[in-house]
Amino acid sequence: MNIDNIAKCNIFTGLQPETIKDILVSVQTEEPFFKKGDLLALQGEPCNRLIIITKGSVKAEMIDPSGKVVKVEDISAPQALAILFLFGKKNKFPVQVTACEDVETLIIHKQSVLKMLTQNEQLLKNYLDVSANYASVLTEKLNIMSFRTIRQKLSMYILNLSEGENNLKLDRSQNALAEYFGVSRPSLARELRNMQDDGLISVDNKNILIVDRNKLIHLIKFL
């Protein structure tokens, strides 16, 4: 068990490696290895275990009833998966999780997670904080996906990222942003050019200058 890697996971923030080791040896854990392309979790299956990626990266994808696959996010070690869905009556994995490369994991089953959280107050606080942050990100994603047009999605995304400033830097590549929106990259690039031509923003690679903030706000409020 690589405690140094595990200690970097945000649910263990503020805990010493020895404390983490003591907590983990007191519960039942597994350390399965997944090859590139292997499934770590299926969308809709019971979320009855905490999966911590200790090495490598995975992608989370959502499949709609028509069979269309939309990438939700890329997740790199060290990070825990779907902690928001471990408890509750409808505790199912909301996405399909696939290894992007060879992946090492630490798996802790639900009852063991509950035992851990009752043993250590800092761990409980971390778990609640990470859950709340994840819920905030999920809400933002749902807000963006509720818009019909790429222009609306981009306007909401840029405004959220700007935090009131007019100069900002995109935190994703255009490929990653297109996957996040569930659109093609050429369509996204075309809309960025159109928004620049219409005097809404100025684009220089990942750097964005908001030229007319009021028009961006108008787009997401009234279209």
List the helices and strands and how they pair.
Blueprint: H1 3-7, H2 17-25, E1 29-30, E2 33-34, E3 39-41, E4 49-55, E5 57-63, E6 69-76, E7 79-81, E8 96-99, E9 103-109, H3 110-119, H4 121-145, H5 150-162, E10 167-169, H6 174-181, H7 185-197, E11 201-204, E12 207-210, H8 213-222
Helix pairs in contact: 3-4, 5-8, 6-7
Overview of the structural elements:
This protein has 223 residues and is an alpha+beta fold. The protein is elongated, with a radius of gyration of 20 Å. Helix content is 42%, strand content 24%. Helix 5 (150-162) crosses helix 8 (213-222). The strands form three sheets. Strands 1, 2, 4, 7 and 9 form a five-stranded antiparallel beta sheet that branches. Strands 3-8-5-6 form a four-stranded antiparallel beta sheet. Strands 10-12-11 form a three-stranded antiparallel beta sheet. It has eight helices and twelve strands.
Distance between the termini: 52 Å
Overall shape: it is: elongated
Tell me the series of helices and strands, N- to C-terminal. Answer: HHEEEEEEEEEHHHEHHEEH
Report the count of strand segments: 12
Feature tags:
24% strand, four-stranded antiparallel sheet, five-stranded antiparallel sheet, 8 helices, 223 residues
Summarize the structure.
The chain has 223 residues and is α+β, with helices and mostly antiparallel strands.
